[in-house]
Each structure stands twice: as structure tokens, then as C-alpha cells.
Amino acid sequence: MGMIGSALLSALAVAIYLRSARRRGWLDAPNHRSSHEEATPSSGGIAVLGVLVPLAALWLILGTPAGTAGTIVPIREPLLSLAAAALLCLIGAWDDLRPLPAGLRLMVFVGLTLMVVAVWLPPRELADLALVLILGVALAWLVNLYNFMDGIDGLAALQCVLVALAMAWLARRGGANAQYEVFALLIAGSYLGFLLFNRPPARLFMGDAGSLSAGLLLGCLGLWAWREAWVPATAWLLLMSPFLVDTGWTLAARAFRGAPLAEAHREHGYQRLARHWQSHGFVDLALLGLFILWLFPLTLLQQRMPENAVTIFLLGLFPQLLLMVRLRRLQ
Description:
By secondary structure, the protein is mostly helical. It is 73% helix and 1% strand. It has a two-stranded antiparallel ribbon with strand order 1-2. The longest helix is centred in the C-terminal third of the chain and has 25 residues, at 280-304. The radius of gyration is 19 Å and the shape is globular.
């Protein structure tokens, strides 16, 4: 059961969920901060994770037991990551229906991500503990920013598919075991099945249930590949850079002028671009083009020239930062 199988099962589960969500009235009504104009079923991440978690868990338990070096492949870490993603999905689904206080959400996210990082990188010395704290907070931030970037049709799901596919490819080139490659492909396939319903004009939103768990899973893909030295951290950061740059730049600009950082808004670069082009689909195509023509080739170059990885990473950021400067003029 690979990417195609998980995509088909995910699409089937999403179709069933969509019908149920319409019947039960689980709708996201438009407001002054929304980028959609009609009430649309939400929390589609429930269906995605309902397929992804058991599929990936079964693969990890029943899949090939040996890695490329002939050693037993540990499965505890990815299994616990799946459990954490499922928990985030449930919290997100609850938040979609009955919004939780921002402070409580943040506390839960930080606590959960700290535990996830501690599983991947068990602290044995004080320096290790400091690393866990830093990466745990960074992962909590990633979970939140993925939610911030899920504001137009198809964008967050497309990014998830692209990053998971690219990480599977890069990790294979870096000598990864079968567990990692299939784990990444199952993530890509599950969100691809959802993308069939979320592409513009979206018939279903992933909601917090899908975006929070997607951020965590992509973060775990980066942690796993970095820990095993299959993919450099700068390559994962480059693949994630469209979301990292947009969110970082937007929040920095809001902080500079004293605007509330926790308040919902429509000031992200991708939202400005969607309004300027009057199309969600064009923004999705722009992300696809940036990824295929620029970011992914640069990550391949990083693998071939690891001594220049940081320079290549900064090169990858340059046109995105330039775009963010120009997008400031758009309303």
C-alpha cells in the first residue's frame, strides 16, 4: 500500500466525510477574515488522519524490519508521532466546532511537541535538553504556522504533498530505509486524496483538524531525516520556506506596527496575492512552479554540494523575500 493506494482510500474517506459534514451542518461560515464566500464543510482532516494513521502504523509494524545497514529499524518514534498527530487532529476538530482559548491551545501544542522531540532526540546531557527545548518550541511554531497558512483553497494540502514527496526522494538518495520512504509517501498520498476535494473551488476545508497534524507530520519527517543524516536540515527548511517566509515576514511586519499577533487577519502574502489575482488556483500554481523549478532543484544541489548547503539555502530564500517586499503594496 503506497502513495496511490493511500490517495484512493483517503479520497473515499473524504467523500464519505463530506456527505456527513453537509448533513450534520459542520460548516465554516464566511466572515470578514475569510477568503471564501460560501459556507463550506470543514474539519476534513478527520478523514485524512482516519486513513493515514492506521495505514502508516500497520506499515511500520508489519513492514520491512531491516534498514539499509542491516540493523533493526526502530518504529517507536514514528508510531508515537502518528499518535501525536491523531491527538492534534482531535483537538483541531474540537477547535473547529468550539474555538479553544489561544493560551490553552499554545500550552497544549508546546507540551505535545516537546514530548515528540524528546522521543526523537532523547536528552542525555544538559546540551541535549536545551536542543529538545529549542526544537520543541520550533515544532510548536510549525504546527501553528501551518494553520496560519491554511487560508485559501488547496494551498496547505498542496504544500504537504510536495514536501512529503520531495523528502521521500531526497531521503532515498541519502540512503534512507524503506520505513521512512513509505511513511513519507503515505503522508503525501493521504493529503493528495484530500486535495481532490480541496482544490479551487474547494468543496471541503481541512480545518484545524488537518492543518495542525500536517504541520506536525512534516516536522517529524524533517527530524527523522536529519537525525539519521539522510537529508540535511537546510534542505527541509528550503522545502518548507514558502510557509516559513510568509508567516515570519507577516508576523514581523504586524509586530513592527504594534498589531496583535494572535488576532486573525488577511495580511499573509498568499492572501494578498489571491485577492490581487482574484484566484486561489493561480496562487497554488505559483507555489507548484516555485517548488518544482526552484526549491526542489536547489535541495538536490545541496545533497551534491553539502559544503555549500547554507549558501544554497540563502539563495533559495532570496526571491521569496523579494516577493514579500513587493507584496506589501497589495491590499
